[in-house]
Design brief:
Strand order of the largest sheet: 6-7-2-1-8
Order of helices and strands: HEEEEEEEEHH
Shape: elongated
Number of strands: 8
Largest sheet: 5 strands, mixed
Strand content: 25-35%
Length: 192
């Protein structure tokens, strides 16, 4: 009976070691092949967005800019793979966008579609991203304030023009309906 217990313990111990080894191997494999996310500094003005992706000895594999996304993939020291996928808060002018790759940075200049107040955040996701930082040195606070005030002024002018007296609107609508009825009755009399 003691030999049997010893055999059972060694068998379960070997099974447990095999399972643990597979789990460790799977975890190490997934950690080895997982892409890292680089630190990105961003700033903006009423017309453009500036991005500064900081990577040492960056070797670019791909960069793609669309109206709603920026994707980047490459390797950097110490031969780690980095990837980035930014979903913009609003559409951008991707055809006029440009970028410059230097040994330690990738700089992006991305024009906005229209001159508008500065965005509250870069990404459509409201969740804070640990890799995304504000570049206060290049932030155009004065331009953003001017654009916000101009937008508010345009909005308030449009709102005032659209706001009419409800009584005046009702009278105008009734007159238009009466005019249509007169035209229809004239056409009906002509047919008879």
């Amino acid at each position: 009976n003691a030999e049997y217990m010893g055999t059972a313990d060694s068998t379960s111990s070997m099974t447990l070691r095999a399972v643990f080894g597979c789990v460790v191997l799977c975890l190490c494999t997934s950690l080895t092949f997982a892409d890292k996310t680089p630190i990105v500094y961003w700033s903006q003005g009423p017309q453009i967005i500036r991005l500064d992706v900081r990577l040492k000895s960056f070797q670019m594999d791909s960069i793609n800019i669309t109206r709603r996304h920026l994707t980047l993939r490459g390797t950097a020291e110490p031969k780690d793979t980095y990837s980035l996928d930014i979903g913009f808060l609003r559409p951008v002018n991707h055809t006029a966008s440009n970028y410059t790759v230097t040994p330690n940075h990738v700089y992006f200049i991305i024009p906005k579609i229209r001159d508008e107040p500065c965005w509250r955040r870069l990404t459509w996701s409201k969740q804070a991203q640990s890799w995304l930082k504000v570049d206060f040195v290049n932030l155009d606070v004065e331009g953003c304030t001017h654009a916000k005030n101009a937008w508010r002024e345009r909005y308030s002018q449009n709102s005032e023009e659209e706001q009419e007296d409800p009584f005046e609107t009702a009278v105008r609508d009734l007159r238009a309906k009466a005019k249509k009825r007169k035209v229809k009755s004239r056409e009906h009399k002509k047919e008879l």
